[in-house]
């Protein structure tokens, strides 16, 4: 579907907000989602995923506008204030939801950027829709940004926006941050539109990644496929402009999570949770969007085998898996849901007793206060994605363990593993390895667990999301200053 929305339409839907924001965040989703209640009325609910957890406190602090989609198709809404934030909804048509969001973003890019765990699909109509929606985001950002404003574009759904926006508004400072992994050249080059994506990203002054490896993959690809000169983290374009690509590991609002965990109501709720679970000796917890990158089947299988082999007694050790629904109309996600339903049913059927299922599986999302109580209730947090940009759940757990107790089992393939080195690290494909590590995380002496948790807490409490945003935005400022401009190396 081609984009027929001209700048007049954009101006009309912004209704007097043009040129009003000195700081703009552009993300596929707004921080709140429009949801329909059973009685037909609609309400706002916090959007899923780590991106919102991280960026919401940043926008609240900085002030400015957040442009994004409400999660409902064909909805035209004027900009509005929500919880102290200026939100600018972007309309997405029903066919674009299928082609741009479910299609190109989540059935092409998502699997391609996550080690092709699922097979990416390449469809030309999906690409056209991706281009059209990216163009719309660029038009809205260009219209709402005041002269020389900072625009910070987020994630894989909007990789063409930096270049499109630069064409419309060369006066802006443009930052881009990728929340998911950036794949090695060997995988990325499968993409028929690889050069367009690289050039799209090069419209930014600063391109941020979760890890050094991801930033290096990008710089290498730009050198190989676009032919620009590069030196370490800097890319030199023909027009004299330079682009910096480097790692800025994202984080959470650590102290607000700790504060929540410390509240007496949270402690009381944590006790209640343990009681409802039958007061077992050990509670293991998993919290993930229901996504095939998160390694849920492997993790449940590992725990299930420990119970089936009698190594863990279901009366003593239980697993709580929270898995909020995600992208439910995409095929691979539907299949995963069926697989998890079957797996949990089988394990509980095999080793459960009356009132004592070894696995409690919750296919819903919960407010932050309930999550903090779950983190407090859990002796072992199990975060074992097959590939993950960062994984903020791991950091949330650590932030909530203010007594330096508990243990984190963490996949080597989560970006968080680079920072949380004292976690019990596992290869999530290795079921025996995971079984052994879960047992170690359960049975290590408290002194050992405290030593590990203390070190991880130092990292998470010191490197919070404020610092992440500050580091990124300061670097962005530096790049565009005439004295800060990086000069092209001599041939
Ligand atoms: O970074 C991962 C991410 O795709 C975010 O962009 C997004 O907000 C979150 O996961 C949840 O995904 P979705 O918006 O598709 O529900």
UniProtKB/TrEMBL annotation:
<dbReference type="Pfam" id="PF00982">
    <property type="entry name" value="Glyco_transf_20"/>
</dbReference>
<comment type="similarity">
    <text>Belongs to the glycosyltransferase 20 family.</text>
</comment>
<dbReference type="GO" id="GO:0003825">
    <property type="term" value="F:alpha,alpha-trehalose-phosphate synthase (UDP-forming) activity"/>
</dbReference>
<dbReference type="InterPro" id="IPR001830">
    <property type="entry name" value="Glyco_trans_20"/>
</dbReference>
<dbReference type="GO" id="GO:0005992">
    <property type="term" value="P:trehalose biosynthetic process"/>
</dbReference>
<protein>
    <submittedName>
        <fullName>Trehalose-6-phosphate synthase</fullName>
    </submittedName>
</protein>
């Amino acid at each position: 579907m081609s984009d027929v929305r001209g700048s007049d339409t954009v101006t009309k839907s912004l209704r007097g907000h043009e040129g009003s924001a000195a700081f703009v965040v552009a993300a596929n989703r707004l921080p709140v989602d429009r949801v329909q209640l059973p009685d037909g009325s609609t309400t706002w609910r916090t959007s899923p995923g780590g991106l919102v957890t991280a960026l919401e406190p940043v926008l609240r602090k900085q002030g400015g506008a957040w442009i994004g989609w409400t999660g409902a198709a064909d909805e035209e809404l004027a900009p509005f204030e929500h919880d102290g934030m200026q939100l600018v909804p972007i309309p997405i048509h029903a066919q674009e939801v299928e082609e741009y969001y479910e299609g190109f973003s989540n059935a092409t890019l998502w699997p391609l950027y996550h080690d092709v765990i699922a097979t990416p699909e390449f469809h030309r109509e999906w690409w056209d829709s991706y281009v059209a929606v990216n163009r719309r985001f660029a038009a809205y950002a260009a219209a709402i940004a005041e002269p020389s404003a900072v625009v910070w574009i987020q994630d894989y759904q909007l990789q063409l926006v930096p270049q499109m926006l630069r064409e419309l508004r060369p006066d802006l400072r443009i930052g881009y941050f990728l929340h998911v992994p950036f794949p090695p050249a060997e995988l990325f080059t499968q993409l028929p539109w690889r050069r367009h994506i690289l050039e799209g990203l090069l419209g930014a002054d600063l391109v941020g990644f979760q890890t050094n490896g991801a930033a290096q993959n990008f710089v290498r690809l730009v050198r190989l496929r676009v032919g620009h000169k590069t030196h370490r983290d800097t890319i030199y374009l023909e027009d004299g402009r330079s682009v910096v690509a480097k790692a800025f590991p994202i984080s959470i609002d650590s102290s607000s999570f700790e504060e929540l965990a410390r509240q007496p109501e949270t402690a009381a709720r944590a006790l209640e949770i343990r009681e409802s679970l039958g007061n077992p000796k050990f509670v293991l917890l998993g919290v993930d969007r229901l996504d095939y990158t998160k390694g849920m089947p492997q993790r449940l299988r590992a725990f299930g085998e420990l119970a089936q082999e009698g190594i863990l007694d279901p009366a003593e050790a239980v697993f709580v898996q929270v898995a909020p629904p995600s992208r439910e109309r995409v095929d691979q996600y539907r299949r995963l849901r069926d697989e998890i339903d079957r797996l949990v049913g089988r394990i509980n059927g095999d080793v459960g007793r009356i009132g004592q299922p070894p696995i409690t599986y919750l296919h819903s999302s919960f407010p932050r206060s309930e999550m903090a109580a779950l983190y407090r209730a859990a002796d072992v947090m199990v975060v074992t994605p097959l590939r993950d940009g960062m994984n903020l759940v791991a950091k949330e757990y650590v932030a909530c363990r203010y007594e330096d107790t508990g243990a984190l089992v963490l996949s080597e393939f989560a970006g968080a593993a680079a920072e949380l080195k004292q976690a019990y690290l596992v290869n999530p494909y290795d079921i025996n390895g995971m079984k052994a590590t879960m047992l170690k995380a359960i049975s290590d002496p408290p002194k050992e667990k405290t030593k590990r948790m203390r070190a991880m807490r130092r990292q998470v409490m010191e490197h919070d999301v404020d610092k992440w945003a500050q580091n990124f935005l300061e670097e962005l400022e530096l790049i565009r200053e005439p004295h800060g401009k990086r000069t092209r190396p001599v041939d």
